[in-house]
Design brief:
Chain B: InterPro entries: SQR/QFR_C/D, SuccDH_FuR_B_TM-su. Chain B: One of its GO terms (molecular function) is metal ion binding. Chain B: Pfam families: Sdh_cyt. The complex is a heterodimer of chains A (141) and B (149). Chain A has one domain: Fumarate reductase/succinate dehydrogenase, transmembrane subunit (3 helical TM bundles of succinate and fumarate reductases, Up-down Bundle). In chain A, α1 crosses α3. With 141 residues, chain A is an all-alpha fold. Chain A contains four helices and no strands. Chain B has one domain: Up-down Bundle (3 helical TM bundles of succinate and fumarate reductases). Chain B has 149 residues and is mainly alpha-helical. In chain B, 63% of the residues lie in helices and 0% in strands. The chains are: A mainly alpha (141), B mainly alpha (149). The interface between A and B is large, with 40 and 43 residues.
């Protein structure tokens, strides 16, 4: 096996935009971190809105039903599907982070666990999205 | 002013012994609350969005039915506290990472704190003071089982 120049300082010569010779950049570890942040921020802002819309039950039945009717709109239905998909990634990857931190072999298997997270994510989405979209796009109330 | 860069793996110098290490407890909290939130939020999503007609069935009567039992009141309030603190602490981490201007950073952290306190107090009060037959509810919107006043 040829000895490659794997220093992080010598990546500039590569014509590829993807940095070579680093363990982290551009790899599964980085992308799981990026996705964890993006999904986390999205879930946080939904949580702010969701506490406020649920608080409408303390105002009147009409106020609550009015705000809930906006959630039954098909465009919002697509947003809810995206939200639940984001929650599933954040949940499964959160378990991966905990295993990396507390399981003695967690760091060794972090890359494998990333792909298990992706597999669970796809399975969860396949389970949830058809049910929710059928409810959202079904006729009647 | 010169900056001394310590050798890698130099143990962190403990500034004041006996003080509470808040960053450590925050780190532990994210993991502990995260596990509980998986159970609470997946249960919440399953009952509200997957069972029956899902989102189409959610209206005032649906929520009133849930909050008639202490089980769902406590479920939702525990979920609210854990999630608001988990989310706010995560946002704090992100603000600390990206807000390089100290004034902007401080404003954002205060905003996160205020939002968390306001929504936790509001949500807790809503769940525990909720009365499906409140006299404040207009008669034409009242649920059928409520006594006619």
């Amino acid at each position: 096996m040829a000895i490659e120049e794997a220093s992080t300082l010598t990546t500039a010569r590569s014509s590829s935009k993807r940095p070579a010779g680093t363990l982290y950049r551009g790899n599964t570890g980085m992308w799981s971190w990026v996705l964890h942040r993006i999904t986390g921020v999205a879930i946080y802002f939904f949580l702010l809105v969701h506490v406020l819309d649920t608080a409408m039950i303390r105002v009147s039945p009409g106020a609550y039903d009015a705000v809930m009717s906006t959630y039954k709109n098909p465009i919002m239905g697509l947003g809810e599907t995206a939200l639940v998909i984001a929650i599933m990634f954040h949940a499964f990857n959160g378990l991966r982070i905990i295993l990396i931190d507390f399981w003695s072999k967690g760091a060794k298997y972090q890359r494998l666990m990333f792909w298990i997270v992706i597999a669970l994510w796809v399975i969860g989405t396949a389970g949830f999205a058809p049910i929710h979209l059928a409810n959202v796009f079904s006729e009647g109330h | 002013m010169s900056t001394i860069i310590e050798a890698p793996r130099t143990p962190r110098e403990r500034s004041s012994k006996g003080r509470v290490n808040w960053e450590k407890w925050g780190w532990i909290y994210m993991r502990a609350s995260g596990v509980l939130l998986i159970i609470l939020i997946f249960g919440h999503l399953f009952v509200n969005l997957v069972l029956g007609q899902g989102i189409k069935a959610i209206d005032f009567a649906f929520v009133a039915g849930k909050y008639a039992t202490p089980f769902w009141q406590i479920w939702d309030v525990v979920m609210l506290w854990l999630a608001m603190i988990h989310g706010s602490n995560g946002m704090r981490t992100i603000v600390n990472d990206y807000a390089s201007n100290p004034v902007v950073r401080r404003i954002l952290l205060i905003a996160l704190f205020v939002a968390a306190v306001v929504l936790i107090v509001l949500g807790t009060l809503v769940v525990f003071t909720f009365d499906p037959c409140s006299t404040l509810i207009p008669a034409d919107q009242a649920l059928s089982f409520c006594p006619v006043s």
